[in-house]
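Supplementary material to the annual report.
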Amino acid sequence: MRRLWIAAAAVWLPTGVTAGSWVLWSDRLPSRIATHWSGSGPADGFSPATGFWLGALIAGLVAGIAAVVAAAIDDRRIEDPAARVRRTATTRATLILGGSVAGAAAGMWVATAHATLTDPADPRLGWRFGLFLLGLAWGGVIRLIAGPPPRIDVPAAPPVDALDLGPTERAAFSTTLRSPLLLGVLLAATAVMLALAATVQPVLWLACPVPLIAALVSGQVRVTADRRGLRLVAGFAGITVKHIPLERIVRAEAADINPAAWGGWGYRVTPGRSALVLRGGPGLVLDLRDGRRFAVTMPDPRTPAALLNGLRSHTG
Amino acid sequence: MLFRVDVAAAEPLADQIAAQVRGGIMRGEVTAGERLPAARELAEVLDVNLHTVLRAYGRLRDEDLIELRRGRGAVVRGDADAARLRLTELAREFVREARRQGLGETEMLEIVKGATP
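Predicted assembly:
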């Protein structure tokens, strides 16, 4: 993608400033320069000018090389659209981080060197700290240059199992998932921790809320699928734990969920996918436009899958 | 359970929603103690008037299928009887067809008595 190459080139700009400023300033700089200040007072730390400059230059070079490598990898062909979208997300993150690192390194160097050049006897940082922040913000500029993250296109033809909704029809799905086993285990864990905290290990008081909160969130979950998308609401607390807007969904399907393949029981997040697994067995699986997948186990996932596909093809 | 209504259908929307809940209970998609979607939320996602949903829920309460409690919303009653509900549904269908054929109440009762061995 061309914009990513332009962004990768832009990551080099602050490093160019670092290199260029050395050519202009090196013969006027003392061998040791002020490199540390506390608040607005005089400098309280000094370093060799060459070493400090080299450090900033190397940080910029590393960031710049990482950016070019990331852009080059992104240029290689890949068939699976989901994998391509995920890869470009990684490339964007590398470019933005690279821009911030290169910018901050250059900002730090220019700020300190300029402070010494202005008043070698008593260098003050003052407003020049803003140069460091400006450099850090270079990542934001890179983000703008790189453009919005790519999204998977929604196929023009609705999937075969889409619910066929007439123009005057409205539909919504709602179900409550209960997991007495998971709830029991988590409450038992809370009880054991409370008992231990009260008797032998008072530090555990701090950890007691963890299984309790997990129990409140996953013990009873309300799942709704409608024109707003998919929503998971923790039943006891009434908190929305997950909301996937309809326009983020490529397609929905019913699949068999093997907890081992999705990272275990409970709310699981693994690279490229996340899931609420309350039991093994049937589940609703969504393919999202950012290349990720989301799954939630439920007794009859075919109904919400067909509904979401149907709603999707209406708004598509 | 799936709520599916047709705004262009002759049957009033509240009746359609109530029928969906009855069907859900009959098929076991909603079970005793389970909470139905909040009326406000259901009205929003189906894009119908809040009072339409409240009317449907009110009717289900009058049929002793759900309980309506302030703060807790609509909850399926523990004694909501799927088998009896099925009979009620059949009776409704019978009455509807009988009315369409122009029969009165006495004639309908006669047919029911005649069907009893």
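Chain A touches chain B at residues 165-166, 168-176, 222, 224, 226-228, 235, 300, 303, 307 (CB under 8 Å).
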